[in-house]
Amino acid sequence: MRHREYNGHTALVYYRGGVLGEGEIEDHSPGAQGEPERILLGSGEVPRGVSEVLYDMEIGEERTVVIPFEKAYGRHDPAGVQRYPRTFIPGGGELEIGTVFSWRHPVSGKNVPVVCTEATKDVVTIDFNHLLAGKDLEYWFKLVDVVDDAGVSVVEKGQ
């Protein structure tokens, strides 16, 4: 972590990327015409591998990196795959293999995306792992700036 002074501050970042080797760009910031994404460093809102890359970058730098699954969304946990009767799930009668839908997390209360991995007449299998669990990611980043709560560049302040 070369730039410890970034911790607790907001990185202004353009990015694009997705699963390594799958070709399609699945995740991206609005683009050069839009405002950069705001990422609060050290808050856990992005995977550890993303934070580590941003801590290592200079303002204005562009970099393409591979983030191994261990530093992205972790291993795919077989215990996170559960079977349910279709009637247990709202809209369960409509689920097909590959359907991604929202599930209310019982602890956080937040809606999280899950995927149906198997479907029979009466039962569906739901994978609760993060959709990118077990996958290495490839991203391009451009670090525009790192700012404090007032929007002042941390680098300009000399922090």
Structure characterization notes:
The chain has two helices and nine strands; from the N terminus they run βββαββββββα. It has two domains: 4-73 and 133-157, Chitinase A, domain 3 (Roll); 78-127, Thrombin, subunit H (Beta Barrel). The longest helix is centred in the first third of the chain and has 9 residues, at 48-56. Strands 1, 2, 3, 4 and 9 form a five-stranded antiparallel sheet that branches. Strands 5-8-7-6 form a four-stranded antiparallel sheet, with no helix packed on it. The radius of gyration is 19 Å and the shape is elongated. It is mostly beta strands and 159 residues long.
Provide the CATH top-level class of the largest domain. Answer: Alpha Beta
The helix content is under 10%
Q: CATH topology of the largest domain, anyone? A: Chitinase A, domain 3
Strand segment count: 9
- Give a short account of the largest sheet: 5 strands, antiparallel
Strand content: 35-45%
Summarize the model shown.
This protein has 159 residues and is mainly beta.
Topology:
Layout: E1 10-19, E2 27-28, E3 37-40, H1 48-56, E4 62-67, E5 81-85, E6 100-104, E7 111-119, E8 123-127, E9 137-147, H2 154-157
Antiparallel strand pairs: 1-2, 1-3, 1-9, 4-9, 5-8, 6-7, 7-8
Q: Which key terms come to mind for this protein?
A:
159 residues; mainly beta; Chitinase A, domain 3; Thrombin, subunit H; 2 domains; four-stranded antiparallel beta sheet; 2 helices; 8% helix
